[in-house]
């Protein structure tokens, strides 16, 4: 499909000249002679992309280009595509203001052919790379469905699909640590009308009190320069998932309430209101009602979030789903980490159905991963499962097993295996929180990320 460019300029000669030049380069060109025509050309009730690039004149008789740019920037779906501003009487202030509002570049008239085509092609290439990054991120977000064949899982799936269809209502997920609240939030996103837009995860407990406002709402200088988008702004058009919302400090809770009420917010240091269209899914391991009574959570925020409450049961209350979960995670590690295929014997499955699963699905996933990493035979026997469970209950036994496992390996490989085993255990203990792991093992977070990458460990899984 050809690249579509919209030229907005009140001078017919310039419109026609640009049309001829761009069509000679193989672009499909549409024209608008004023702001009203531009609004009509871009009018769509959805975030559908009608053009790939806009060339916009600043000075027009009805609506100036800066006002149009600001209007698009603050609209429900943001800028429709890259915008290049044009002017024969532009000033440095106009260029700065246009850039602040999101314009890709600023061209002075009279236009030169070489510079015009250079800036147009750069803008298109930059936009293409940005969209490819987003596409790759989406491609590698593994689709998820509630796993299991029990009546509970079928009922939960129906609840989640119904919740996904009610687009504007916030959702509050309750459940013990490890039950998979984030996966269920992602499932809601996949089933919703926002599935092609962003899903932004905020691990509330990992954000320091001092930086919380900047991380969530972004930052800019008083003159509107040096803009840094926060997580709320990144979720525009999509869903923001506030994990462990009960850990959010009261001052930030007040800002979240204000954002929900006004559907807008101010960046830290900013003076311009940023309109936002997103859906909120929050989760908590604790009772927020009890936190409200204790004065640790704002009552107004609780009622705004608790529109669709969904409780995720602990695994021990639907153990009939354990075999399906075991098979699912065998396939998962086979595909994601290239581990050797193994299957659970019937006696091993039956034994695991009677296990307490205090760590819920996270514990089961960790168990499957360990058995696939360290096992040698295809069948996973009852004895092997009992040995692993016993080692979890008795740290000394675990130390002996690990030591025996590494003694026959070359030093480099043994060290890598140990570091991998050690870090996986630390992540299990910290419920996957990278900040907690870095603090506990006394390592800089950037160095920890490098180590995880070298060992092929994805901290988000």
Question: The CATH topology of the largest domain, please?
Answer: Rossmann fold
Total tally of structural domains: 3
CATH class of the largest domain: Alpha Beta
The name of the CATH architecture of the largest domain is 3-Layer(aba) Sandwich
Major sheet, described briefly?
Answer: 5 strands, parallel
Instruction: Provide mean pLDDT, rounded.
Output: 86
Q: Specify the number of helices.
A: 20
Oligomeric assembly: single chain
**Low-confidence spans: pLDDT under 50, at least 5 residues?**
396-404
Alpha-carbon distance between the two ends = 37 Å
Topology:
Blueprint: E1 4-8, H1 12-24, E2 28-32, H2 35-42, E3 53-57, H3 65-73, E4 83-87, H4 92-100, E5 105-108, H5 113-139, H6 151-165, E6 171-174, H7 181-191, E7 199-203, H8 212-217, H9 231-234, E8 239-243, H10 250-262, E9 264-266, E10 273-275, E11 279-284, H11 288-293, H12 299-305, E12 308-311, H13 322-336, E13 343-344, H14 346-353, H15 360-374, E14 379-380, H16 382-393, H17 395-406, H18 411-429, H19 434-440, H20 445-454
Parallel strand pairs: 1-2, 1-3, 3-4, 4-5, 6-11, 6-12, 7-8, 8-11, 13-14
Antiparallel strand pairs: 9-10
